Amino acid sequence: MSHQQKVILVYFSPCGTTLKTLNLIAQGMGCTAVEHIDMSKPEERRRKHEFCSDDVVLYGTSTGALLFAPNKEIFASLQGNGALFVGVALFGGGYYGVTLRQLQKRATRQGFRVIGLGAFIGQHSGNSEMATGRPDQQDAAIASQFGRDIAAKAERSDFTLHSPISTGWSSSLLYNTVVFSRLFMLGSDYELPPFMKKKEIDADRCIQCHTCEKNCPTEAIDLDSRQFDLSRCVACYRCVNRCPRKAITVTSGIINAVNRDFAKRLGSKRLEPTIIL
């Protein structure tokens, strides 16, 4: 990679797995120092971020067909100006095809040149039985190789995607039904309806540490009233996973059924990353 090129990690990583994968890719590119833009922070999404043609942006998000991240808001804050773009989606056994298509389309619309896409596996944020312990050493090797391939592609000024974007359907019929409409809404964000994002705080376990409230990416939690603003919530599970007392539980019957279905169908199956160059 050219010494003039700067690598910037732009990510929505509520549980840290997406950021871990981006760092592995950057290391594979030979980067000793990178810039970070953490889009789980509302103030970063409110800023305008300008890039230049010498920049390489590694963009990471969760999958779920862009259900679980404010990607529309994030991309509105980005202006590529010819910067190179690598889109990375983390999935724990679900659907990633629409996510990769969305990343390519939105990045192009914001003035980036898309040179690579990847769907990587991370432990499911809503079900620890899915992709437990991922990314592991094998995933790390694939991510590092992806980084080396990206660096080589950038060095030879190859700005074309030569591989097709695979569909990446889940084996869960219920989940596929939930996200199928995304095939016809590539220009729009889709949000889960509020009843599918329901959560509760156990008053006996809660110690009022405000960890959930302070770390909510969309400022959707009022801990004093123990209420969730489900119109703002993106169901990223950060509050569930960061609570030190495990006081927050998902109470949506549909989402819990989907997660149980994932565990039943894919809990013992090893999925592998998908690379598009």
What tags apply to this protein structure?
single chain; six-stranded mixed β-sheet; alpha/beta; 19% strand; 9 helices; globular; two-stranded parallel sheet; 277 residues
In short:
Helices cover 31% and strands 19% of the residues.
Structure description:
With 277 residues, the chain is α/β, with parallel strands linked by helices. It contains nine helices and twelve strands. It has helices at 17-28, 42-46, 71-76, 97-109, 137-155, 173-179, 211-215, 238-242, 253-266; strands at 6-11, 35-38, 49-50, 55-62, 78-79, 84-91, 113-121, 199-201, 221-222, 227-228, 248-250, 274-276. Helix 1 links the parallel strand 1 and strand 2. The model has no long low-confidence stretch (mean pLDDT 87).
Structural class: alpha/beta
Arithmetic mean of pLDDT = 87
Relative helix content: 25-40%
Q: Whole-number radius of gyration?
A: 18 Å
Q: Describe the main β-sheet briefly.
A: 6 strands, mixed
Compressed to H and E, one letter per element, the order equals: EHEHEEHEEHEHHEHEEHEHE
Give the neighbour order of strands across the main sheet: 2-1-4-6-7-12
The N- to C-terminal Cα distance equals 16 Å
* Count of β-strands: 12
User: What portion of the residues fall into strands of 2 or more residues?
Assistant: 15-25%
Count of alpha/pi helices: 9
| Uncertain stretches | none
Assembly form of the protein = single chain
Shape: globular
